[in-house]
Amino acid sequence: MQVTESALPAAAPEMRRPGGWGDAARSNIAGLLLANIVFIIAFALLASGFTSPINVYSLSRSIGIDGVIGLAMMTVIITGGLNLALGAIGVCGAMVVGWALQNAGLPIPAALLLGLFAGGALGAINGLIVVLTRLHSFVVTLATMSVFFGVMVLLSGAAGFNALPASLLAFGRLRLFHMVSPLLLVMAVVALLLFYLYRFTAVGREMLAAGANPVAAKLTGLPVERLFVYSHALCGAVGAVAGVMVSLRNGAIVPSMAGPLGADWLLPAFLAPVLGGTALTGGEVSVLGAVLGTVFVEVITSGLYMLQIGEFWIQTALGIALLAAILLERARAGAMLSRSLRG
Amino acid sequence: MARAIQRLAGAAALLLIAAGAAQAKDVRVALIPGGPHPYFANWEQGAKDAKRDFGIAAADYKVPAKWELGLQNQLIENLSAQGYNAFLIFPGDPVATNGPMQDLASAGIPSIATAGCTKDPTPALFCFGTDVGRSAYLGTQHLLQAMGNKGTIVHFTGNLVDPNTELRMKAVERAVAETHGGVKLLQTIADIDRTPQEADEKINALLAARGKEIDGIITTAWLPSVSAATALRRIGDKRIKMVAIDHDQVVLDAIKDGYLLGTMLQNPYGQAYIGSYVMEEIVGHGCKVNAGAPFKKNAYTTRFVDSGTAFAGPNDVAHYQDVMKTVTKDLMATFKATYLTCS
Amino acid sequence: MSRLRNLLRADWLGLLLLVLGGSAALAVVRPEFLTPYNIDVILVSFCLTVVYALGQGVIIAIGHMNLALGAIGCLVAIAFGGAMEVWHLPIWLAAVFGLLLGTICGFINGWLTWRSGLTSFIITLATLSIFKGTALGITQAQPFYRIPDAVKAFGSVRWGPLPAMLLLALPIVIATGIFLARMIPGRQMLAYGGNPNAAELSGISRARVVLLAHTLSGVLAAVAGMMTVARLQNATPAIGDEWLIASFAAPVIGGAVLTGGHLSVVGTCLGVLVVALINQALVMLAVDPFYVQVLLGLLILGAVGLNRLREARLGTTAPVRLS
Known about the structure:
Helix content of chain A: over 70%
Number of helices of chain B: 11
Shape of chain B: elongated
CATH architecture of chain A: Orthogonal Bundle
Order of helices and strands of chain B: HEHEHEHEEHEHEHEHEHEHEEEHE
Oligomer: heterotrimer
Number of strands of chain A: 0
Radius of gyration of chain B: 22 Å
CATH class of the largest domain in chain B: Alpha Beta
Distance between the termini of chain B: 40 Å
Largest sheet of chain A: none
Structural class of chain B: alpha/beta
Number of domains of chain A: 1
Distance between the termini of chain A: 20 Å
CATH superfamily of the largest domain in chain B: Response regulator
Number of strands of chain B: 14
Low-confidence stretches of chain B: 6-23
Strand content of chain B: 15-25%
Strand content of chain A: under 5%
Largest sheet of chain B: 6 strands, parallel
Mean pLDDT of chain B: 88
CATH architecture of the largest domain in chain B: 3-Layer(aba) Sandwich
Radius of gyration of chain A: 20 Å
CATH class of chain A: Mainly Alpha
Order of helices and strands of chain A: HHHHHHHHHHHHHHH
């Protein structure tokens, strides 16, 4: 990244290819893949129980959930913006599903669709406010996070839904091959759909172009505002999926699933896409990178817990592992680059 | 090498069994709070004492790195993969913690909801904690009596996503209503058990704005208790009477110096001590929970055991830990006979 | 005359009007608003928040982020409290130790960001875990309680409506303002934030700018952490937990752009005040706890929206700033 930055002239943003699948992203993927393999082998050897079916199952479930949370944030990072309200929307979407199933008695598919729609609608509200007021999405979603979550607590009285249909819960508890959670497959489906969207559809490419350089995109006649609203709506809908997935893990739909104001999701939401090479300035996307980023974080977390590090020090160990891994990956990429330049 | 030793040990164990030495099963208890919090420090001591007194193989206090539901769930899964076979869990959420407990139960691992309840239907053997409504009600009564059942009070409490908060609000309202208009509840401030700074800000704002109208303060959560005690000391006000909850050093000092009437102690030590003992009996010695035991009922469950609550005034604060141990001893005396059936 | 016009076009004027108007309205509805004690409470909240908000502000100025801000504040608060309670250091020495620690933490952030060429988001996210985990590991989640009376007094004493903490917060605000507006390293930071490549071409050292901004951020976080200890009268590892969003909110409400190059110190101060006022109003007007979050969000949106409307009227808005 250092190299590309200084190699470009001052007007870098204008030069960036719209919808670019940057080299940075591609090298990131190789690096992440390698880091994942190294860590998995290391933990399998060092931490007893790391490869046990129960841990693999738990790992696959965490990867599934945090993966979708990361992908949701990714859809709005590409606009160069962000969505602090993601967690709040996810909880709201799930609560709508809970209400539809338990109070309105809707069939499962209809309830899920309704939740998806609710998440999308809340996301679209964010997008509309951003576009209409031209305020930074940070401020807008900071405020709507409080509003969405507050209204949800107000309407629900902070009471969750715990009488979900058995078939839905059974799906959440399935163990494929005795050790893989179906939530991992849900994540894979979401990832594939997003990959298809950004790679092969016009609207997806336009979203990327609008995010890469709104001014230029506008000049070329793209409906930038509308594309931004789409992105925010997509973020909300994927967030609602994540909310339902968390609920499946918990066996119930509760307002506290993402912490106060849904803020617990924020770090995993940004961490995975950024690790995976999605630029915070917008316009770039790496679905595979985000997925690998999630796997990486979850593997480290799980492995360190398995190593039985003193409970209060686990966060320190996590930080050091993360730092070491990204710096090593950086060094590896740097070495490869200099070799290819020489060669 | 390690594997060889393991095999040898296994063989030795088999031999022992064959020799007819009725070797009890090793019980490994994990005590898992919701996150890092000073309340649970006494769990560690309680677990250690129980391990020593009852010869439990392991009774370990394991803290999630952050106060997050997802992280706690992950830790539970991790520990079960590490071979812990009995769990005392503070439910991160009364409904959602049923999920991981169900996972444990399907693997034949028992759990007790400790210091807080899970909502029925729950896989937890029973709930062992403070009756929060009763504690808030008794605390308010102490306050109102000291005020001669006349005047105006305010209530500072925990977070709205925690359903205990509503129970506490209702209990305080009930105690106030019983004065038949003698005492007025001026205002309730909730959502201030997240960070000390937020609690400090809001409590001082209220004291500044309406301090003259206020005659009494009841607090029913940890941080608000600390902040309100600090605030009263800061403005040097002994006219306003206050009853707090829990045993933070700030609260105890304020009682000693006459700023507070007293505090409602909970019994974390006893929760861990008795809870670990129960697990040793159940997992190690084949006891069962007595279905016909005189469980109490609360808003969450019909299988509730009160771990005790006690009002500590100026004379008790110096030896508040003895107060807890006395409560624990009393409970312990009849616990096995009342709540367990052993063959 | 042109000075007046400049003032009228300042992007923080709308916020100033909001703060004044809001205060006036509150004072009418609730006369207690103007009591010295109440003004003190608002100013205390201002003092504590503005220091760490500027700690994030100097990072935003170069287009970076410091997610570890609260963790640094937390670690320093713990170190400050621990140094006095466990090592029995005199207050000034403990404070110097805290400042040094904050400086080192900030420097580490800057150095890693500079050397690795990675986004500061990832680096500071990792160091967040390290600093916070260390604070938790040292304390086992137990606060340090034995804070000397002089430190407690600093967080409590007020002269009429003016808290003693203003003695620290105001000079910091003014110094940061002068540093960014008038001094060469400060202007270089803003220039770099506005356009890193152009800045480097014109001879501004990237290493210097990045190291300076992150170190400064660490120092400000350290000061804020120790001020919080003085206010709370104990050093708990929960300090700094709510700084992350609040530290971004104040500068951004005050007109800062997250991509860098622009930071208004006056705007940041007003951003802090707007949020403090809204919180105060929600308490003073005895809003039902279940409505507090909703109203908080709507009022923030309303406040920044009004300010934006004024900007749009005056045509001072940048042509396209969509996201």
